Amino acid sequence: MHSRSSQFVTVNIPIVTPDLIRGPHYTRVKALVRAVTIVGLCVMLSACGFQLREKAELPPEMQQTQLVISDEYSQLGRRVRVQLEQAGVKFVGQDRATAVLEIPKNEVLTEVLSIGDNARVREYRITHTVQFRLTDPQGKELVPLQTIRQSREISFDEQQILAVSREQEYVKEDLANTLARLLISRLEIVGSQS
Q: pTM for this structure?
């Protein structure tokens, strides 16, 4: 019979206490690390071309604008309103308006691209189309009727129905945000020419 003898090895592990971490130069080191981090982030952001967006240069007539859209609480309507307000536009009623921004078409369509073997949708496209024009209160066009359109394709996974519905909502929000920015960019072109 063999008898096993076991040997225990004792290892002394030093316990790190706050006093060891926070030595006399701790605040200086912390400040230096923070400064290097901030400088590094600034360099990385400027290297990738990031710039803070300046205030939009819109036509001067838009200082007091009436917004005409069928559903002002739609995703596009809210985004256009917020972005124009950030640019300094004040939304007023028809009696005080110096410009009228009309959005007669704000349409989101979903179309099927492919159907699987089990006769269920596998891919579909969401298309958001917007038409807009800018006039003065008498109806003279400052920006003629223009159409902008964006679309995104989504793959459908039957196993993740909730994720797909969330993705669909995210895509619709993203399209509305993109179209609002494009609309304002087109208004800026007219503003920079005046």
A: 0.68
